[in-house]
Design a protein that fits this description.
With 349 residues, the chain is of the alpha+beta class. The protein is 37% helix and 19% strand. α6 links the parallel β6 and β7.
Length: 349
Amino acid sequence: MDSFYASVEQRDDPSLRGKPVAVGGGPEGRGGVVATASYEARAFGVHSAMSSKRAQQLCPHLIFVYPRFAVYKDVSRKIREIFSRYTDLIEPLSLDEAYLDVSDDKLGIGSAIDIAKAIKTAIKEELNLTASAGVSVNKFVAKVASNMNKPDGLTFIGPSKVEAFIAQLPVEKFHGVGKVTAEKMKIRGLHTGADLKQLTEAELVHLFGKSGRFFYKIVRGIDHRQVEPNQETKSIGAEDTFSYDLGELSEMNPELDRIALIVFQRMSLYKLYGRTLTVKIKFSDFKQITRSKSFTEEITTIAMINEVSRSLLASAGLEGRKVRLLGISVSNFAAAPDHGTAYQPRLFP
């Protein structure tokens, strides 16, 4: 979906149309975080996971709207009903994104491109929202293609074009490559898929660990992952890489609280409450540690997430070390999701 939360708000409130809108907590007090931004706001550099204070600095006339997750969930359910007319193989990634395998063409349309067009038309006519689609032979290329011509885009990458498409792709456009990994690649002169393809698998593993094996295959168009409609949710989490390294707990704790709020909102939306909380810490030298704590009862409040995550961070022995990323995840769920299909949380890069 295109700028999903913001687009729903603009659809439901005509006064917001054509204006820069950020869905999330406002900048008052300690400030909140932007969940998503309209395309009018993105023109000013506002994006998801940005602090609301920073967003307001970039766009002083930005309109903040508090999220209505129940509404977004209902719209997402209707979108998934549209998907199901065309295929039963649907793997949701979040409320606004999914993989569809249309090899089993339920309506006998005969063309993946025509199916994508039909889905986009149905979403527009029935829900007054726009979606962008990527059509290709595997998950990786379809995912990247879906972001090529937003909003309201449709990009097809045929089998004969896959390797050439990946070769010209900037490394930061690779799904799963965050800004830290992209920076690490560029320092080594790796700017595109073609550059990555020059390295052996052993060289890529040496530089990027187990992700190196994925990069080796993906730059050759190899991605055998199946669309899995019944994945079980294992954890819900969020993380953020900071624009500069943090050296004091007084700097880290507000960032941890911001991440905690995102996690709590996701838990509340899907009514998933786990008994294990994990804090992820990545240092300036790219070394990474985690600290976890488990409970006999479920973690159900933002106050508990804040308290436990701060405690785990304080006990991690950070003296004299610089931190470039923090993350929080909750796992060990007592019950399965109540929305019928698994939620695969999107971690902020």
